[in-house]
Amino acid sequence: SKHFFLFYLYLTRNSGLTRPVQGQSSCPKDRLGRKRRTVVSSLTEDEELTEILKSYCSNKVTTTKYSFLSFIPKNLFEQLHRFANIYFIFLAALNFVPVVNAFQPEISIIPILLVLAVTAVKDLWEDYRKHKSDKFINGLVCEIYSRKRQMYVDQRWQDVHVGDFVRLSCNEIIPADMLLLYSSDPHGVCYIETANLDGETNLKQRQVVRDLPRQGSELTPENFHSRIECENPNNDLSRFRGFMEYPSKARVGLHNNNLLLRSCTIRNTETVIGIVVYAGHETKAMKNNNGPRYKRSKLERRLNVDVLWSVVLLVIMCLTAAIGHGLWLRNLKDNSFLIPDTTSPALSGFYLFWTMIIVLQVLIPISLYVSIEIVKLCQIFFIQNDVDFYNEYMDSRIQCRALNITEDLGQIQYVFSDKTGTLTENKMVFRRCTIAGVEYPHEENARRLEVYKEDEALGCSHTLKSRASAKSLSCKSLSCNRSSVSLHTLTGHSEGEESPSPTLPQHSAFSSPMEKDIVPDPFLVQKLNCLSSPLFLLRDASMELTYIVDFFMALAICNTVVVSSPNQPRHVVRNIVSRTPLKSLEDIKMLFQRFGLPRFSTLSPPHTTESPRSFTRRLFSRGKAASILSIKPGEPGADELIYEAESPDEAALVHAARAYRCTLQGRSLERLLVELPGMGSLAVRLLHILPFDSTRKRMSVVVRHPLTNQVVVYTKGADSVIMDLAESPKGAEQSDGRQGHIREQTQKHLDNYAREGLRTLCIAKKVQTSTEYEIWLKRHAFAETSIENREELLLESAQRLETNLTLLGATGIEDRLQEEVPETIEALQRAGVKVWVLTGDKQETAINIACACKLLRTTDQLLTEACKALLLELRAEVERGEAAEGTSGFTLVVDGRTLDFALQEDLKGDFLELSRRCRAVVCCRSTPLQKSHVVQLVRDQLRVMTLAIGDGANDVSMIQVADVGIGISGQEGMQAVMSSDFAISRFKHLRKLLLVHGHWCYTRLANMILYFFYKNVMYVNLLFWYQFFCGFSGSVMTNSWVLIFFNLLFTSAPPLLYGILDKDVSADTLIKLPELYKSGQNSKAYLPSTFWLTMLDALYQSLVCFFIPYFAYAGSDADMLSFGSPINASALLIILLHQVIESRTLTWLHVLVLVGSALFYFSFTLVFSVVCVTCSPPTNPLGVDKLQMSQPLFYGVCALTTVLALLPRFLFHALRNSISPSDTLKAALMDQLNPDNYCRRMQHWNQTQAQSKARGLIINVEDLDIKIPDFILPKELKECRAATGSVLS
C-alpha cells in the first residue's frame, strides 16, 4: 500500500538524522543523570514518577535540519565549512575595499552567490522531502489507553509518551519501543516482521513478560502497578536488559524477546498490548539511523593537494605582480600621467597584491566542486539503471548509498570477500550426515542436487514488490490467515470453527524446493522404521537407535524456527488425541532411558506405578494441561508447514529432520510439538533457549523430555567447539570407549565433508539430574535479572551448562557457488586485484570452496602454516619460489588462531610481506572482529585501495573499515546492505561494477578535473602576462562581465559532458580484457606528473594565445578592450578544441554543446558591445567586439593562435599513440575493427598476455562448472567464440 511504501521510504531515505532539532521535539535531558531508566504506568498518581516520565523524549520525530527561520543562517553556516566558499566570499568582500578593488564590486559576488544558491536550493528540497515524511509518520494513528475515557482511543504517533499503553492489531506498525504485556495468543506469543528495520522478512517470535499475572481476557491498564527498570536508550538492536518488579517485590528479567521495536510490523497475532519504554529519537530504530555514508575518495584527496598547489601558484603570481608594481613605481621618472598620490611604492605593491588576488581568483576553480557533484550524481544514475545489475528473482537492482566515491571503484587493489552468501548461494541444503560414528552418504540426495533445477515456472516466487504489497493488507486480509501453528490449551468445548480462507501463495525464506525436498538415506530410513514396526521390541533396539532418535530430535527442536501453515486460520485448532502405533509405552520409555541416564550404569526400565495405557492417557489426553496440536491427514495444511528460520542452516536441519518424519509441528512460549516416527506427536516442554553467539559458536535448548521427564540439553555448533566439549561422563568405561570411537569416526567424516566443501555442524546432548539443574537454574536466573554485565553473566551461565556433552553426530550441508563466481574471480585477478576470502568455516571447507571458485589453481603451492616460528621460513620459501623461473604462485591459508598471532604488533610486518607475495589469501575460522582488523591492517600498512564485500551482520565491521564496502542483499537480511556504500544482489555483478563502471568513473572524473585545472590556469595566465605591459597595475584587457562569466558560463558545460559521457573503451572490451583495469589502479589518468605536464601545456598555450595577438596588433591604434577581444575569442576556441583532442567520444551531443558554448560566447559579447554603455565602468565596451568581429584580422589571429597553441599537444598524442600506444588505446582501436579482425586481434592479445604471465592464469571455459552467459556480440563474433575461449569467459 501507499502508506507502507512511504513508511519504508522514511526508514531508508531519511536515515540521515543529524538531530540538531531533537531538543525541540520534546526530548529534554535527563536532569537526574540516571544510569537506568525507570518506567511506570502513565496512569500513576505518584507525582514524582509522573515527573520522571515527563523527562523522557516524546514520540514526535523530527529529521529535518532546518526551520523556516533558521534555514538561511544555518545553511549558510554549513556551507561556510567549505574552504573554497570562504575563500571566494573573502575575495568578494575584498573587492568592496576601494583601495584594492579590481572591478565592479557587485559583479564579483555573482559567482559565489550562484554557487551558494544552487547548493541551498538542493538542501532545501531535500529537507522539504524529510519534512513531508516526518509529518506523515507523526500523523499515523494507533490506539492508546485514555485515563479519562477508560478505553483505548485513536491517537497520533507523535502523542505517544513513555508509560502509555498501546494496543495494536495484526499488520499494524509498532509506533515506539514497547514492552510486551499481553498477546491474544493464549501462551503469550507474538510474531513480528523486522523488514522495515533490518530487511529480514522471516518472522521473529516475541513473548509476554514471564510470570506476568493473568488479568482476564485482556490486560487492564488500571490494574498494572509494576515498575520497570531497564537500560538507557542505545542502538543495540539485539540487546535489551532490565527487570520488572511486581507489587509483591518479586522481580523477573526482561530480554530482547520481550521488546517490540519501533517500525516492526505485527504479524499472525490478532491483538497485542504493550507499555512504551522508549519513544521518538530514543527508540533503537532511530538510534541506528546514522545518515548517509560519507567517505573521501582517493581522487578527492589528490584534488585537495593540487588545489593547494594552485593556491601556491596564485600567491607566487600575485607576489610577482606586487613586487613588479613597486619596482615600476620606484623607477618611474615621468609620472605626469598619474594621479598625484602620496602612497609609497611598497604600500602600493601591498595593495596590488590583494588586487591581483581578486583579478586572478579564477585560478582556484570555484565551479569544480559543484561540477564534480553533478558528474558523480550522473555516474550513479547510469550505474543504478544498468540492466545487467537487475535481479529478476528478487526484483532488485544495485543501490548506491555513498554518493561521493564512485571513482574509487576504478582503483581497487585488494578485494576481501566473505564466503557464505557472498561467493555461495546461502541456500543450505542437507547433503549427508554421520550418527554414532556411522556415515550416511545420502547418494540419492546427492544425485538430486546434481541434476536439480528449480522450477521457475511455478509463478509463486513473488517479487519484492508483490511481497510487500501482500504484507500490507489489513488484519482481515489473507496475510493474517498465514498464521503460526501455536500450541493451545483448549477447554472441553472448543471455539466455533471458521472456514479457512483461501490464501495467496506465500514466500518463506530458506524454503525453496531444493532446500525442502530432501531424499532420505535408505539405510537410515530402515533403522528408523524399526520404531514403527509392529514387531519392534525393546530387546531389538540397539544403542545406535537411541543415538539416531536423539539426533533427529535435536535437529527438530534445537532452533528458533517459527512454524506456520498457509491454510489454517489462527487460533482454530482441534484438540485431537494422537494415536501412537507403539504396543507398549514402556518400550519407548525404556529406549530413551537407555541413552538418557547420566551414567549409563543401568539399563533397567524406569519404575512407574502407572500402566502403559494410563500413562498414554495422561500424556496425550490431559485436556488443559496438554498443549497438543494435531493435523488430520488429508486436511488442508497437513503437510504444508512453513518454517520461518532466522538462518538457512536452521531451516536446512529442520527440513532434514522432517524428511525422516521427525517433524517440528508447532511452537509456543513454553512448549514444542514434535512428531517422531512410531511415536506420534509429543509435546516437549521448553525450559530455556541459549542462543547462538560468535563467542560460543553454538546454541542449545534445555527441554523436559516428554517421556523420561528428564532435563535434557541439546546442543549444535561448530565442530571445533563441540568436539572439545564432547567429554564422556566419568565412571562409564563402556560408554567412554563408545564415545571415543564415535568422536574418532565423526572427526574423520567431518574432515571428508570439509574436503568436499560442505558446511559442518556437530550435534550433542547432555542429561542433567534435578539437583544439577536446580543449581544451574539459580545462577542463570540471577544472570537474567541483572542489568549490569548481563551478557557476560549469561555467557558464563551457558558455558557452565554446555560441558561434558555426549556427541551424537554431525551434518554436512551444501552451499552451492553462485553463478559466474569463478569467472568473476579470474577476471579480478587478471585485472591485478588480489582477492582474499575471509570466512568462519573450517580450513578444509574454505580451501575446497576456494578451489571451486578458481581462487586457487591446481598448480598453486599452499602455505597452511604461518605461526610465529614459521613466518620468516615461509617468507623465505616464497622468495625462493619467486626467484625460480616458471614457478607457480603461492596461496596462504591461515586460521583464526594464527591470525591472532599475525595481528600482533611485532608480527604485522612479516605477515603483510608474506601475504603480499602470495597470489591469494584464505583466512578461515575468522571472527567478525578479525575480519575488520585484517582489512584495516592491509589498508593502512600497504596504503592500497581496499574493497570488502559480504552479506551478513558478521561482515558489517569489515565493510565499514574498507575504502569501498559492498553489501549483498541475500538470505541473511539487510544489515550488510545498510552498512555498505554499494549494494548488489549477486557476486558476479562485482565484475562489471569494477571493470566497467569503475574504470569509466575514474577516467572520466580524473580527466575532467585535469581539464578544469588546465582551462583555469590557461586563462588566468593571459591576465598575468598583460601585467608586464601595464606596469603591474592590476588592469585587465577585457571587461569584468566576460572575465567572470568566462569560466562560470562559457566553458562550464563541455567539461560536465566530458565527465559524464566520455568513453575510452566499450563495456564489452573492458569485460573481455580485465588487464585494462590496471590503469586505474596505478592512477595513470591522474598522476602528479600528469598534473604538472598539464600546467606546463596551459602555460605554453597562454603564451601563444597572448603574444600572437600582441604582435599582430603591435603599432596599431587598438585600445585595451580591442586588444583583449581576439585574446578572449582565441582562448575560448583553444579550450574547446583542447577538449575535442582529449575526448575519446564525440557524438552529436558533444558537437551541440561545444558549438553552443562558442555561439553563446560570441552572441553574448556581440550583444553586450551593442547595447551596453555603462555596464563596465570605467571602461566602455560599446561597439568594441562588433568592430573587431567585422575585421578579417580578428579571424586570422584567432585561427593562427588556435592552431599554434594546440599543435604540440596534437603532435604529442600522434607520436605517442604511434610509437608506444597504451593498452587502453589498443583496446579502443579494436572496438573499431570489423568482427573478423576483432576476433583475431582479441585472440592474439590473450596469447601475448598468457605468455607474459605465470602459467595457469587463464582458465579454460570447458573446465568451469557454471554456464557462461552470452555477451552481446555481432553474429560474426559469436562464431569465433570457441577460438577465443577464455577471453569471452
From TrEMBL:
It comes from the Eukaryota. ATP binds at D418, K419, T420, E650, F692, K716, R759, T839, G840, D841, R925, K931, N954, D955. Keywords: ATP-binding, Endoplasmic reticulum, Magnesium, Membrane, Metal-binding, Nucleotide-binding, Translocase, Transmembrane, Transmembrane helix. Residues 489-511 are annotated as: Disordered. One of its GO terms (biological process) is phospholipid translocation. GO terms for molecular function: ATP binding; ATP hydrolysis activity; ATPase-coupled intramembrane lipid transporter activity; magnesium ion binding. SUPFAM superfamilies: Calcium ATPase, transduction domain A (SSF81653), Calcium ATPase, transmembrane domain M (SSF81665), HAD-like (SSF56784), Metal cation-transporting ATPase, ATP-binding domain N (SSF81660). Its EC number is 7.6.2.1. The keyword Electron transport does not apply. Residues 977-1221 form the P-type ATPase C-terminal domain. It is found in: Endomembrane system; Endoplasmic reticulum membrane; Membrane. The chain crosses the membrane at residues 303-329, 349-372, 1026-1050, 1091-1114, 1120-1137, 1149-1173, 1193-1212. Mg(2+) binds at D418, T420, D951, D955. PANTHER family: PHOSPHOLIPID-TRANSPORTING ATPASE VD, PROBABLE PHOSPHOLIPID-TRANSPORTING ATPASE. This is Phospholipid-transporting ATPase. It comes from Oncorhynchus tshawytscha (Chinook salmon). The gene is ATP10D.
